[in-house]
Amino acid sequence: MPELLLKLDAVTAGYAQDIDVLRDVSIAVHAGQVSGLIGLNGAGKSTVIKTICGFLAPKAGRIEYLGEAINGIEPHRLIDRDICCIPQESSLFPYLTVEENLRLPLQGRARKFGAALAGRFEEVLEIFPALRERRRAQAGDLSGGQQKQVEFAKAWLQRPKLCLIDEPSIGLSPILAEEVFRWIERFAKSGMGILLIDHNVRRVVKMSDRIHVLSLGRITAAGGREDFEGDLHEQVRQWLGLDF
């Protein structure tokens, strides 16, 4: 069994004192694997990410990373633990250049990466060739698809152990969305553990090693890819109340 990176154990969380958005949520993410989280809009998927990242402190339950509790971790400390988040909305600084945005998370960490940093940056520009041409452009001048490339390139440059990815294909054309999913597969093959949220249920099921269904803040189904691959149309109708 691959190394267990992230474990949510019966986590309850919410934005108000008496309103729980998540109820007894349990999820696991292993190194080199994709754990998919699917559910209707409003089910609480993004709240799971916010709770892991420390923007919300769990009211109950435990969040473990490499066996250590990180309940309520300060969000800016995630990078120190080799945890990276690619949010649904852009996290780029629009008036900084592409290169400045890429290098920003690595400031103060040159000692950790050493001489490998220059080679790693060149590798990123080979994987994302469009960014080489736009490396001096301000991030705010990029298209939505190019900004998404910068987000993934920034994550690849950091080489995290765990990457949390929230709705990466939203607003993208089918061609660009498929490219995004190939990047995620590359991340997993490199050994990263991935927690993936995306509205493309079929694609999430296809590429995930384990899938969790979130409905009204609770995990209502969980299993391996083989448990979800049968008549997905009927399963999704049953679990999520949708007809795809």
Summarize the structure in words.
By secondary structure, the chain is an alpha/beta fold. It contains 10 helices and 10 strands. β1 and β2 form a beta hairpin. α4 (116-127) packs antiparallel against α6 (144-158) and α6 (144-158) packs parallel to α7. The chain is globular.
Helix-strand layout with pairing:
Layout: E1 4-13, E2 22-30, E3 34-38, H1 45-52, E4 60-65, E5 68-69, E6 83-86, H2 98-103, H3 110-113, H4 116-127, H5 129-133, H6 144-158, E7 162-166, H7 174-189, E8 193-197, H8 201-207, E9 210-215, E10 218-224, H9 225-228, H10 232-240
Parallel strand pairs: 3-8, 3-9, 6-7, 7-8
Antiparallel strand pairs: 1-2, 1-4, 4-5, 9-10
In short:
With 244 residues, this protein is of the alpha/beta class. Helix content is 35%, strand content 24%.
